[in-house]
Amino acid sequence: xxxxSPGRNRMPSYQPWCHGTISRSKAEDLLSKAARxxxxxxxxxxxxxxxxxxxxxxxxxxxxxxxxxxxxKKLSVQASEGVPIRFFSVLTxxxxxxxxxxxxxxxxxxxxxxxxxxxxxxxxxxxLPPQLPPRNFAGNDVRESDPCPYQKPT
Length: 154
Prior knowledge:
Layout: H1 24-34, E1 39-44, E2 52-58, E3 61-69, E4 75-77, H2 91-97, E5 111-112, H3 116-126
Parallel strand pairs: 1-5
Antiparallel strand pairs: 1-2, 2-3, 3-4
């Protein structure tokens, strides 16, 4: 998107670590199941409109950091005191930067936790139902149906 676009900081839905409007407890549950230090996800903040929460697993604890936009719509993480504040135009840039160690988080980002529907779709694609031939019932046209609304376009 161009730099003047009002929606440029919206969550990029195509990123596996973007979970949208899940609750804090749901995020903690997903990270606990991941069970690896450095596992992370980003969700929309439940308390601050336009803000996000970066949730990181380290030593069986989930640490949550606020990602806040400034007046110029640049994003920054509220990290440890004394760590220089860095600003990013989009969430993807922010996540890439925090893969580096010593950025003020309890640990650096390592393992994105995928949305549950992404995992479900991967499992479904491995076990495909049998393909049935189209049937024509008393005057109904047989047409190729639209893809299911919950499937990703291929």
